[in-house]
Design a protein that fits this description.
- By secondary structure, this protein is mainly α.
- It has a single domain (about 25-175), classed as Hypothetical protein, domain 2 (Endonuclease III, domain 1), CATH 1.10.340.
- Helix content is about 50%, strand content about 0%.
- The chain contains ten helices and two strands, in the order ααααααααβααβ.
- It has helices spanning about 15-20, 30-45, 50-55, 55-60, 70, 75-85, 90-110, 115-120, 145-155, 165-170; strands at about 130, 175.
- Strands 1-2 form a two-stranded parallel ribbon.
- The longest helix has 21 residues, at about 90-110.
- The chain is globular.
- It starts with 13 loop residues before the first helix and ends in a 9-residue tail after the last strand.
- The relative contact order is 0.17.
Length: about 190
Amino acid sequence: MKPVTRCGWCGDDPLYIKYHDTEWGKLITDDKKMFEFLVLESAQAGLSWITILRRRDSYKRAFANFDVTRVAKFTDTDVERLMNDAGIIRNRLKIKATISNAQHFIEIQKEFGSFCKYILGFFPNGKPIVNHYKELTDLPASTELSDKISADMKKRGFKFFGSVICYAHLQATGYINDHLTSCDFR
């Protein structure tokens, strides 16, 4: 039996391997799942992805099962509750940004019909990109496309969503497939 080949970034951590094999790079067309990744990627800014991945269930609980409508209505009382939640990253700016981002997410849904449609509108022919990288060192941290999307989202009021976080979000949600050419999960 041939051994399984994966992108090297997931290492041997079982949680990372499961995430790589079942989620990373798989196209998401559901706005609820897109919002979940937006929350998680924004929380990850300045931290390692595994730190957030290990806290994913806590984020799900803390942020109303990633229900964007409920999160958009969070108040200062909710911010204080979240600041006392040891299961998430207790960064006031990130927590407030999540609430504000939820409000902007809903505005985009109203304007474009869905957040996923909004994102695809930036892509050539409205189609996800499949890259053909052979080595992890070939993968960019950001691109002109992530610069453009991030700039537009910032203009719309989003926070903690710079170009590098945006690129990671696009990879995670399958809008950019950066599985290495040797990866069995490509």
